[in-house]
Amino acid sequence: MKTPKILFLALILALNSCSSDTSTPDETTPTSTFAMTAKVDGTLWEMQNPFGSDYATKTLFDMYPAEQYILLQGRNSNFVDEIRLYIKRSDLKIGTYPITKNTFDASKTQVEISFNTKGKSQYPVNGSVSITTIDLSAKKVTGTFSFNCVDDDAKPISATNPITTKVTEGTFNYRYDVAGK
């Protein structure tokens, strides 16, 4: 008679020790497996760099020298469309940086978009990039961004030059200055 009582107590103890995991993830848990995400005209783009990872790529143009810029390049799964955030190294601190028409003069953090499936060039004219965390030892930068584009950045936003592309809810999480990359 003792054996069934012991088994019954063991069963009760085992059932009471089971619980569901209702804990919430801590703030260090990434919310996405992608290096960059954004809604472009309401459609979610989930992006990695052109090599399929989360490291910043080397700048290719003299107007964005690598000594002055970190390039966060996110390419969409169609391999045609991409967003490029050129973070000025002097802006590599927690804060929000305005996006205005590109000046191509290495004076500020800038954004470019290649939205080739849209058929017309898109030029960012206003928005912001916010750096929310920087891990200097791991060389990792995370943040958010949003911006609006027009077809002709030589003209002001108006009825004849309306906002043609809206990029919202952008996020980035990149490693930078990765050796050999």
UniProtKB/TrEMBL annotation:
Keywords carried by this UniProt record: Signal
Signal sequence, renumbered to the chain: 1-22
A Pfam family it matches: DUF6252
InterPro entries: DUF6252
Keyword Signal annotated: yes
Record's protein name: DUF4840 domain-containing protein
Gene source species: Flavobacterium resistens
